[in-house]
Amino acid sequence: PSPLHLLAAILTASGIPWKMRLRALPFCARLPLEKEQSVSQWLASHGQDGLASILWEPLCLAALNTPPSLASAKVFRRVLQDAFQRGHRQSDMLLPKLGLHALFPEPAREFIERRGGHVLLGQRVRALDIREGRIHGVMAGGKTFEADHVVLAVPWEACLRLIEPHPSLFPIAHALARLSPSPITTVYLRYPGASLPHPFVGLSETLCHWIFDRAFCGQPGLMAAVISGPGEHMAMARERLAEAVAEILARRFPWPPPQDVLVIREKRATFACLAGIESLRPAASTGVRGLWLAGDYTDTGYPSTLEGAVASGVKCAQAMLGETP
Fold first, then answer.
1. Are residues 162 and 172 in contact, defined by beta-carbon separation less than 8 angstroms?
2. How many domains does the chain have?
3. Judgement on whether residues 249 and 202 belong to the same structural domain of the protein
C-alpha cells in the first residue's frame, strides 16, 4: 500500500548509490514545490543533482518530452505525484500489443456508431460557423454541418487555425500561438534473433534514451530506439543518425550489425512543456456557447501524453453536461 511501495521501490532499485537513495526518499514522499521553475532548478534546490542523469532526467524526458533545463517543474511534479503518491498500480508501465489505431480510434468509432452516431473520414474542417456568440456548425468538404455543440478535439495548431478568425476567441488564440512543438525521433533497427531481457531498457547519458524490444508486440528482432525532445540529432542526416544509434547499441549488446534501419522524425510530436506553460493552456469552455476544446494541450495539469488527452476529454464532457439543460 502507498506509501510503502515507494520505500520498497527505492530500497531495491539497482544502479543508484545508497546515499542518493536516502536523499530521494523524502523528496519523493513530499515533492515540495514553492514556485514554478524549471525541473533542473527544482531538483537542484532539493539536493537531487546527483540523481538527475540516473533517474530524474530520463523520467522528465519520457513524460514531458522536454529537457529538464526548460521543462515545467509544476507539470513534472503532477506526474510524479500520480506515479509515486497514489498507489503502486499508478506507476505500472503498460505496453500495448496492438497498434494505437486498433487500441483507440477504432474502438471509439465503434462506440459512436453503436449509439447511432456517424464518423466521417477524410472531411477536414475548414472553418467554424460562429454567430451572435454561439456555434452554429462547421464547414467541411464544401458543406456546412449544423450543430448545437462542437468539440474541437484536434491538435493545438489545428485549433489555432480554426479559432484565429473569430474576435471572441482572440485570447485563446493568442495563448495557443505562444506554444511551441517538441520532436520525438524513433530509429527502428532489425536484428534477427536479438532480444532484450525486458520489454524496454533505458540508457543514460547517450544519444538515445530508450530501447523497446518489439518482440513483445509481435515483431521479434525489431528494436525501436527512442530519442525524446530536441537535440543535435535533429540536424543529423538520417543515415548518420542510424549509424550513431547502431554504434551505441553495439557497445551494449552482443548483436551483429542491423540488417535494416528506418528513421522516423516527428518534428511536432508534442507541445514543449516549458516552465510557465500552465498560464497558456485553455479550459474546455471557450466563452462561445456550444463550442468546446479537448486535447492534451488544454488545462489538464498533465503533459502532452495519452493520459492528458483522456483527462481533457473527461473534463470537456463534464463541462458540457454541467452547462447543458
1. no
2. 3
3. yes
